[in-house]
C-alpha cells in the first residue's frame, strides 16, 4: 500500500511541476528531449527528489490497514526473534536506499544519459528508489508492530 501511494504521489508531483514549465520537456517533432531539460534540472530536480524521499518516509511511519494486516501475518508465522530480524532486514535497506536515491551509480547515469539525459535519469532513479524506501519502511513498521504485540 505504501509503495502504491508513493507511486501516485511521485507521478502527481512530477506532472504538476512539469505543467509549470513554460515549454514541454519532450520535443513534439523528434521525441528527443528539448534544451529546456537543463532549465528543469536547475529549478526542480532537487525539489522533486527531496519531495519523493520525504513522502516515502512519511508513508513508512503511519498506521494503516495494510500495515496491520502484514503485522498479523508476520505474528502468525514468526517468533519474536525472527520478527526482530525481519524488522532490521527491512529497516536498514530503507535507510540505505535514501542515500542510494540521492547518488545513483555511475553506470546508471551513463546508460540513462544515452537515452534521456542525466537529469531525467537522476529523477527516474530517485522515483524508483523512493518507492523501494516506502515499501521497505512499511514492511519494517509491520514487523516491528508484530514484534511489539507478542
Helix content: over 70%
Range of strand content: under 5%
| CA radius of gyration | 18 Å
* Number of self-contained structural domains: 1
Choose one word for the global shape.
elongated
Question: Strand pairing plus helix content: what structural class?
Answer: mainly alpha
Total number of helical segments? 6
Could you give the order of the helices and strands? HHHHHH
Euclidean distance between termini CA atoms: 24 Å
The low-confidence runs, each spanning 5 or more residues with pLDDT under 50, are: 24-32
What average pLDDT do the residues reach?
84
Largest sheet: none
Q: Total number of β-strand segments?
A: 0
Task: Give structural notes.
The protein is mainly alpha-helical and 150 residues long. It has one domain (2-148). The protein has six helices and no strands. It has helices at 2-19, 36-60, 65-77, 80-102, 106-115, 118-148. It is elongated. Residues 24-32 have low confidence and may be disordered.
Question: Helices and strands in order, then pairings?
Answer:
Elements: H1 2-19, H2 36-60, H3 65-77, H4 80-102, H5 106-115, H6 118-148
Helix pairs in contact: 1-2, 1-6, 2-6, 3-6, 4-6, 5-6
Short summary:
The chain has 150 residues and is mainly α. Helix content is 80%, strand content 0%.
Task: Name a few traits of the molecule.
80% helix; mainly alpha; single chain; 150 residues
Amino acid at each position: 500500500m505504501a509503495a502504491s501511494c508513493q507511486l501516485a504521489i511521485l507521478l502527481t508531483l512530477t506532472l504538476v511541476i512539469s505543467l509549470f514549465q513554460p515549454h514541454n520537456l519532450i520535443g513534439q517533432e523528434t521525441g528527443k528531449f528539448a534544451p529546456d531539460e537543463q532549465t528543469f534540472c536547475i529549478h526542480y530536480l532537487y525539489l522533486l527528489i527531496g519531495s519523493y524521499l520525504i513522502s516515502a518516509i512519511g508513508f513508512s511511519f503511519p498506521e494503516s490497514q495494510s500495515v496491520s494486516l502484514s503485522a498479523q501475518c508476520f505474528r502468525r508465522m514468526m517468533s519474536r526473534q525472527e520478527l526482530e530480524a525481519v524488522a532490521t532486514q527491512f529497516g536498514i535497506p530503507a535507510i540505505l536506499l535514501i542515500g542510494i536515491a540521492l547518488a545513483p551509480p555511475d553506470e546508471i547515469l551513463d546508460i540513462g544519459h544515452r537515452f534521456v539525459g542525466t537529469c531525467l535519469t537522476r529523477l527516474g532513479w530517485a522515483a524508483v528508489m523512493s518507492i523501494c524506501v516506502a515499501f521497505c519502511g512499511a514492511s519494517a513498521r509491520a514487523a516491528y508492530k508484530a514484534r511489539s504485540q507478542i
